[in-house]
TrEMBL record:
It holds the Pfam family Glycos_transf_2. This is Glycosyltransferase. It comes from Candidatus Cryptobacteroides gallistercoris. Keywords: Glycosyltransferase, Transferase. Residues 8-171 form the Glycosyltransferase 2-like domain.
Amino acid sequence: MHSTEKISVIIPVYNAEKYLEKSVRSVMEQAYGNLEIICVNDGSTDGSAEILSRLQSEDPRVVVVDKANGGLGDARNAGLAVATSEWISFLDSDDFLCADAFESISAVFPENPDLICFGTRIVTEDGSEPALSDRKYYAVRFSGNVEINDSVIKKTDGSVCNKMFRKSILDSNGIRFARIYYEDFVFTMQYFFCIRQAYYFKDKFYNYLRHSGSIMTTTFVRTPRAIDHLRGIGYLFAFVVGKGLHKSHEIMLSHIFVSYYWLSVKYSVQEKQEEIVGCAAEIYDKYDFLRQHVSRKLVNRTVCYEMKSRRHLVSGLLQILFCARREYFHYRQYKVVRLFNLIVYKKLIPEA
């Protein structure tokens, strides 16, 4: 017999009138009925507010939260602030759920998993075949109850929408969305570090609509926001180290640092690359485990694997980690970092 625990579904809404009704109705029409549907209107200027008002009048389970525009993570945090259920699900306002999603997922509630993960179906607006890279990213590589370890974490995508979280774990560990772009990965990783086991469904319960304005479409392009990939790692490391959770995961964290440094550089506009270098150097100098585990071998394995045709660019990162530090540690006045023939001088506060 399936559980009847209530699920809070948080839907951030910003100028989503084209897709919003289909998205919310996919929750309203779930076979599983014990739901709290929290729609956070994040300062929309189109007809989204009117659509939400009409849907709320149809279904008392729909809760509408109106707020000034603060971004996706801020809207999700506003939803978490009013959620009353133990189980938390996130749905983006242009995506939709399969009708039996929560009915199927609720079957494992009695097993008390810390996290529930499920598959994602990529739906393109023009009916074209989804990119292979997208399908690989969302592939579910496990099934059933799984004990959490570094391999499981690395092989699970960072999206929050194809997962269900326990609010008690979020609250007790102070896990909320950072006010940066690409905040899903940080939130999901913080949660992984606080749990012991998860339940995986290979079923594709979540339908992700790929269109010109969707998040994944605008994530892997050159943008001034690319530095937020790296800033997110700074938030993650501060959280993990602050709770003393890093000691058995230092190699994986070092790998993440190198990967996300490179991701920031790869998708950054030219004028932001100096800032990215400085951000990377600050993170690197702050954590002893990075200086212990980030090696030439790791850099080559991570970066060269992703960019086989541009191996010469690896030297920029190696200069940060092995060459520039000589001036920094000898003089303690200026940090000198080189990348792609750029030089960043950052004055440090003199030691007392």
